């Protein structure tokens, strides 16, 4: 249940902060990707470098930092809030607990809480008398009414030297609660119990064993769509060419090479409730191929080509009742006009159009600008591919399903 999930780990300034490093590793061993945000006081117990080294990501601490590396570092709480599947604060001190209950956001951790679109799990950790105080009790009740998950602390020996309720729960208990929350969230997923096929990356049409026709597709957008469908509870099958991005853990995948290979695999899985054709499929393939490398001095200077199968048209002609077909269109000019014609011609439900004329959109970039078009609807999405993939699927299967 944690495999492939994206988790923000918040660390506030309590003695149990050192245990958060072990919690981070436990999430990673379960297959999750983890990013860490700390309160400034948490650095008194564990250095940010420890979490940066373990997570392979920079640690978010200050909203406005003197060491900002990019102009938009101060908006990291917004980006992370959209990125995460779950936000866990362990340990969560009485101070941080009170700030969250009161809606305060004076550091990057509390600001990210305010911006988060995912479930929030708090692990209150403090001295027993503090935990029993009227103020903490009021704050806990407020947080529970707000729908925030609370994992109560355990009894035991505390940093004060006293015995009481206030210890950080065992790591396995935090993981179990995290799995429970994610499972509950998936039950409400827009694609729960639906089979979703996503194609990604380029195809390669070989001329001989060492030469081929292809395109610059990295597979980033297709993999982002697969991850977004997985996050919405779909049973996702990824069919991909030679991509340049890792396949999300827990995702079923099949690797193909040519347009013909892709067509054969799509036909096998054409009964899926949702098919997203994000692959950059070659329109042409060599009419004649050689089993041996063609020598330069023996080669013809012209290459005879033939059209590949139009997979999207085949899907449109063989569309099943209730099936949703989503295609992509890449153009250098007249983007919307060409995309509308393509959607109608292919007989599919949605076309996602993006221009390859900009350096910030299209092949091999981390960002994209996509115009989603149906017969009656049009909306533009811009930003990181992973984020807009989620926004697009939420739009298609939510308000506009």
Report on this structure:
There is one protein chain. The chain has 401 residues and is of the alpha/beta class. It has 2 domains: 6-187, 3-Layer(aba) Sandwich (Rossmann fold), CATH 3.40.50.1950; 195-399, Rossmann fold, CATH 3.40.50.10300. It contains 13 helices and 19 strands. The protein has helices at residues 19-29, 48-55, 76-83, 94-102, 108-115, 128-131, 134-145, 171-187, 220-231, 259-268, 311-317, 335-346, 385-399; strands at residues 6-11, 33-38, 86-92, 120-124, 149-150, 154-157, 163-167, 195-200, 205-208, 211-213, 235-240, 252-255, 274-277, 284-286, 305-307, 324-331, 350-355, 367-373, 378-384. The strands form 5 sheets. An 8-stranded mixed beta sheet has the order 12-11-8-13-16-17-18-19, sandwiched between helices. The radius of gyration is 25 Å and the shape is elongated. The protein starts with 5 loop residues before the first strand and ends with a helix. The model has no long low-confidence stretch (mean pLDDT 90).
* Assembly state of the chains shown: single chain
Distance between the termini: 26 Å
State the helicity in percent bands: 25-40%
If you average the pLDDT, what whole number results?
A: 90
* Computed Rg: 25 Å
Largest sheet strand order: 12-11-8-13-16-17-18-19
* CATH topology group of the largest domain: Rossmann fold
Task: Name the beta content range.
Answer: 15-25%
Reported CATH architecture of the largest domain: 3-Layer(aba) Sandwich
Count of helical segments?
Answer: 13
Regions with little confidence, pLDDT below 50 for 5+ residues: none
SS-derived structural category: alpha/beta
Envelope shape: elongated
What is the number of strand segments?
A: 19
Please, what is the CATH homologous superfamily of the largest domain? CoaB-like
Largest beta-sheet characterization? 8 strands, mixed
Number of domains: 2
CATH class of the largest domain: Alpha Beta
